[in-house]
Amino acid sequence: MKLKELESCLQQVDVFEEPKLLLEQYPTSPHIAACMLYTIHNTFDDIENKLIADLGCGCGVLSIGAAMLDAGLCVGFDIDEDALATFKMNAEEFELKNIDMVQCDVCQLELAAYDKKFDTVIMNPPFGTKHNTGMDMQFLRMALNMARTSVYSLHKTSTREHIQKKAVDWKVKMEVVAELRYDLPASYKFHKKKSVDIEVDFIRFSIT
Ligand SMILES: C[S@@+](CC[C@H](N)C(=O)[O-])C[C@H]1O[C@@H](n2cnc3c(N)ncnc32)[C@H](O)[C@@H]1O
Question: Which intervals hold domain Methyltransferase small (predicted)?
Answer without folding.
Answer: 43-141
